[in-house]
């Protein structure tokens, strides 16, 4: 499922673009369910397109999306990259508005986490594909890029003398059915996407073995709870769906056991 070269690519550059993993029929069904989950969150309201809509626990809300977590096409790759006993961190479903400025999802360099992104519309360099800065998940480049954080807050700030969309990077142009795997410490962004650009993610962490790893998981859980309150229309007060945490699937049981032990809901 993942070759030695792909593993080297992921470890060195911090990302992997897997093309045409899902057939047209499969992605059609996935897209239909995704639209339904996001519509449900809006409780019948049309998408206003003024700000991003994000639904945490997105894939847990429907069996078709839930099946992705245990699907060999994802599970085996995550297993090959993160090793045994990796954990579920969560998922989100998004309708984006505007550009996403440069950022890493975190700077937890001692704890490996992977995001799997599905873009449900064709996206190119100029129309909102994910752009990544290869190797930026590792110091010193990871830290050297920190001035880009101020550019995200104010795009007129130009720490490297180039506009946000001219920062040297690789555009991961994709079609529905492709998957992007990336290390969450990697600097990434996107520019020029249409209002309502559809995308969802699945997030996994390596087996937590130190106090720092556990602290990271707790911190992420707390901030995701805050995220539910600020971004979701439906207020569940939970990050994870109960049925997901209580799944009979041995694969899901394996990846949520630690979350249950930590009292996450
Ligand atoms: O597609 C995008 O606009 C950016 C996605 C992103 O930043 C993320 O999922 O962390």
CATH architecture: Sandwich
Q: Residue-averaged pLDDT, rounded?
A: 97
Q: What name goes with the CATH superfamily?
A: q2cbj1_9rhob like domain
Secondary structure tally: strands: 10
Order of helices and strands: HEHEHHEEEEHHEEEEHHH
Distance between the termini: 32 Å
Give the overall form: globular
Q: Regarding CATH, which class?
A: Mainly Beta
Strand order of the largest sheet: 1-8-5-10-3-2
- The structural class is alpha+beta
Q: How many helices in DSSP terms?
A: 9
How much of the polypeptide forms β-strand, as a percent range?
Answer: 15-25%
Rounded to an integer in angstroms, the radius of gyration calculated over CA atoms is 18 Å
Summarize this structure as a short list of keywords or feature phrases.
Jelly Rolls, six-stranded antiparallel sheet, 265 residues, four-stranded antiparallel sheet, binds 2-oxoglutaric acid, alpha+beta, 10 strands, 35% helix, single chain, globular
Topology:
Elements: H1 4-13, E1 15-18, H2 24-41, E2 53-56, H3 63-70, H4 72-82, E3 87-96, E4 100-103, E5 113-119, E6 130-132, H5 141-144, H6 148-153, E7 170-172, E8 179-183, E9 188-190, E10 197-205, H7 211-231, H8 242-245, H9 250-261
Antiparallel strand pairs: 1-8, 2-3, 3-10, 4-9, 5-8, 5-10, 6-7, 6-9
The structure holds 2-oxoglutaric acid.
2-oxoglutaric acid binds at residues 96, 100, 105, 117, 130, 188, 190, 199, 201.
